[in-house]
Write the structure tokens for this entry.
Amino acid sequence: MPIEPSVFQPIRKNDVHQRPFKAYKNYDIFREGWVGTSSGYVRHNALYLSYPEPLGETTLKFARNSEDQTAKSVVWKTIDHKYYRHPYDPARTQEHSNADTVEKKLWYSASILTMPYFQVGEKIKPGSLTGSFSLGDISYTLEDDALGNLRDPLVITSSFASSSDSIFHMSFNEVYRQFRDVAYLGTYKYALDYKVGQATRQAGSEYTQASLHGIITTGSFDRRAGLSSYFSSSKSYIRVAHSKEFNRFNRCDDWTICFWIKKNITGSSARHIITKYGTTVETFLDETTTWERSKTTPKHIAVHDHGHPHHPGKGRPAKKPRTPEVHLTKKSTKTLKTRDKNFHVPDVTQTWKKAKTPFMIGVESDKNSNETTYHFRSSDGSNELHITASKNTVSGSMLSNSWDHVLVRNSGSVCKMWINGYQKGQTGSLPTGTTANDMDIMIGSPNTLRMFLPKVIKRLTSTTNPSSFYNSDPDDGDITVTGLWTVQAGVTINIYGDLTINAGATFRIDSGATVYVWGTVFDPGTILDEGTLIIGERRSPHEYYLSEIRMYAYGLNQTAITSLAGRDYVSGSLFQTNVAGNVFYRNGQMVVSSPMPKYNTGSGTFGDTGSSENWDVKYKGQHTIYENQAFVRVPADLCNVPMNPTATYTPPTSGDVCTANDSNTLPGEFRKRMFVSGTALPYVTTIGLYDDDARLLAIGKCAQPIQKRSDVDMNFVVRWDY
């Protein structure tokens, strides 16, 4: 049967394809072009505050962002909740949960730039964001590393100490979370986090406080960087539990210990800083005795009532109860428990030959000069290494030379000390015997228990059992002898104050015993000195601040040592990171937050218009475009007859005037003879795509008409995207 001419042709299912591809659009936002929140961009400053803002409060503590009047404390909590409170828990953070690739630390202040959806698309292209910032003569750049970190190229990471060889790191930069307000830091309420390798553990503390007195930068500006811990008295300590990693500080091991310290040197004093001796945990069997009470009631006994006066003899028989009996049964319960075991610790300036320890680092200051001496000791129980290094130090909360970076390195069996990146003082070799012990690492006071000598001694004999060292209270060390006090051979006594021997009292020092009196001796009584009595200058209560305590399982080279001691305002590497914030691609947010002061100076990273702070942020927004393609097949024997109304005609009712060219006729059901004979051929100008219900979905127009040929099959490719 004849084929009815048509311009419709079905498309095979496998001839339709869709291919998505990413398109990236460049965006640039900068301070001079800032038009406020009407642009869709929002900038916020954030401040930590753990308690709700009182209604109507407008003081600095409860400051608001000027552009949208959001409370800075609320902004901080929002960012913390979204990304930082549980930084690496995939179920509790919105983005970046891989601790191996991203570093997420939120300082107590932060600056946030939020991009609008239409200027971001699906997300910010990873690795595309850069920010340029300047304040006066100081300028720096932050670059997105495609992993979510904003890195500062001015901080050279190639000089960092190897993090994979780190066996201990304690930083205090996030302890502000324990307190209501950074303006009112105090004694720690909870345990302190530290790292042994990559594992996070917790340390206990007593009488130790968080402090805003961070390390002072050098160079362009003297500003505080980070937080520190304040050891205010001889009772202050942080206790790090013993671990097998701490057994490799012997002579043949290569290792490094370093920390930052700030001293108050208003008086002469000596204090332990880091000691692996003095406190351990012992297991004991605790027996608890209880008495269980039981009550026994015996049977009734038969008795006779008294007879009636008028009827002599026994009365009627009756039963009478007996008195109950109480029995006590002894029960004992034995429970295995642990408790602290403390050992008396020698003074920083005294010999440690009998105190087996891999390391003791202490500090000694002299009120008559600015000289500060650092002591390092290591002992195998019979021999010790003692080396010192000194430098001039001044007091002052904002003076850069009030802080020292102290480093001890053992490499190639040679032990040396560095202060502020420079090798100082003596060198030596550790004892040949093992120095490892099972003591806890004590930062600050070496003891957890107050094992001081009594302030008034009536009768006392100091022997080498249980210890060879006995001390008075370093904070209130005066001792008065009212009777007889004997110090036997092999014992060392430290009296951190005045010694008074009352009239009629006797203080006996046997041969081989040593007594140090850091004060004045008043002796109305008798001193029998057959041993050694040394009288020194009275010591003042010594206090100091510590920050960034690290230990490494190798001997650092000079480049790494310089990096650890580097605290330049612009390029400081003291925290061993060049990450100053994060980019959250899917959320379209840029967060700048770091304890280094250059990132939070002035009115925030994204300063107000009209200020001296300039900034320029460039990034690419990612948009997915879907390219669709339809392969239209037109066989040679189809679509050869045009369907345009102008190609048809209606024949006249009579005559043949218009028969030759079918002109001057109306459109009709007949094709004009020029198209039937092949004199005129059809041309393709437009291709329409329809669904099964004949609804037009897309139109493709040719750049120029294409002749439809009847001798070959023709194919057309229609592409469109959205």
Residues 32 and 537 are 64 Å apart (CA to CA). The chain has five domains: 22-157+572-621, 166-275+347-445+544-560, 281-341, 475-536, 626-721. The helical segments are 72-84, 558-564, 673-677.
